[in-house]
Amino acid sequence: MSIRMDQIQPIIDREYDYFMSEHPHWSLTKGDQDLELVAHALRVLLHMKTTPQHLSEYLALVDCQHADGGWGKMASNKESAAWVTAFCALMLIRGNLSLKHPRIAEAVKKCTRYFLETQKEDGKWSDPSWADLDAVSHPISFFDVLLAVGKHLVDEPTLAKVRASWRKGMKFMLDRQAADGGWYDPEFHPTGVEITAHLIQDSIVADLLLGDEFNVRECCRKGVMKLLSVQAADGSWDGENVDHTMDCTRSIMLVCSVLGMRAQCDRAIERGLEWILKHKCEQGWPDFPGMETNLERTCDGLDTLLKYRAYSQPVTTAIVKLWGYAA
Amino acid sequence: MIFLAKVAEIPDGARKLIQVNGISVALFRQEGRFYALNNACPHRQGPLIRGTLEKTAEGSGCFIRCPMHGWRFDLATGDSHGRPGNATVYPLIRQNDELYIEL
Lengths: 327, 103
Prior knowledge:
The complex is a heterodimer. By secondary structure, chain A is mainly α. Chain A has 14 helices and no strands. Chain A has helices spanning 5-21, 23-26, 35-47, 55-63, 82-99, 102-118, 132-149, 156-175, 193-210, 216-229, 242-259, 262-278, 295-311, 317-321. The model of chain A has no long low-confidence stretch (mean pLDDT 95). Chain B has one domain: Rieske [2Fe-2S] iron-sulphur domain (Rieske Iron-sulfur Protein, 3-layer Sandwich), CATH 2.102.10.10. Helices cover 0% and strands 45% of the residues of chain B. In chain B, the strands form 3 sheets. A 4-stranded antiparallel beta sheet of chain B has the order 2-3-4-8, with no helix packed on it. The N and C termini of chain B lie close together (8 Å). Chain B is mainly beta. Chain B is globular, with a radius of gyration of 13 Å. Chain B has strands at 2-6, 15-20, 23-30, 33-38, 52-55, 62-65, 72-74, 89-90, 92-95, 98-101. In chain B, a hairpin with a 2-residue loop joins strand 3 (23-30) and strand 4 (33-38).
């Protein structure tokens, strides 16, 4: 790898300091917040291994969970939505691996029930703000983590329902992969880049957990090859989209590690990361080059660097852990 | 009424991001008509100025598609066609060769 950790680590340290200086703008302990941003922030805490110092952040998320087990776009919203609920649920189940707090454990059980009760007959979840493939991908990520490291959190009958629900959702996703390896939605994801990056990282767990039951190795390999084929010459994806470039870089790191495709992917990952570093703001990252810094993108940028740090370690499980797929 | 741009700065098919009183306004000119929208997509605040322009089915209007997650808005009305939020459209006033906006 040509990007050395002694280059990356000082950036991680500086960006984490900046992220913490923005605490009032992402913390639920300071008032109403956009919960997708909160979840991005909690993921930074997880991957910086500072979760134990921030129990109050996780409990504040529990405090705004609805009676049905879900969350809304804003903490103050009364109506639950699948996408953001999955993001919150993921952060709670992963955070509680170290926090081991009974209220968080109870909240995880409640959101498990939410997903079991809101799945449609064909295996998907729906959210009017997102494509069906988005809305199914995040609950599947939550179930991925539950099945990988959180089985003890629910009773056996619930676990059996989770397994059945997870299989239906996984089948919904895999059945919709295009012949070229990408996933598309004509309305939300015409280029297919972001959703393909999300779905390969969600699907690869089926290989880790269930052997090759769904032939996911081939699906994910094709997905990676699709992403490699649409990377721009400058290293970015999707028209210099910082978010989607970070998504692709991270997702390829995970999937190629599991599939043993590093030799094919190393250079694309480095080019993606070089582009991400080149286009960062003085503090944080923008949505597109030249724009002002954006806190959610900054969380994604930090996450990308932390995942690259794990990717640079010789043990594959180091990066798998950063998706919560291993304890 | 606040000055936005000179007409000559925006040739047909062009777009420009302009800061007005702390608001990012995305200005588009399509087939001679000018459109001004708040640049932040109501979904996840994606920059509409970076979006893709698409013709409506009947060809008489235009959509802007957000580059982040594909939400699509009618340039003239901001209507998102069923998504839970519309883009903010600002009325434009043309006086001689200058464009003004009402916020």
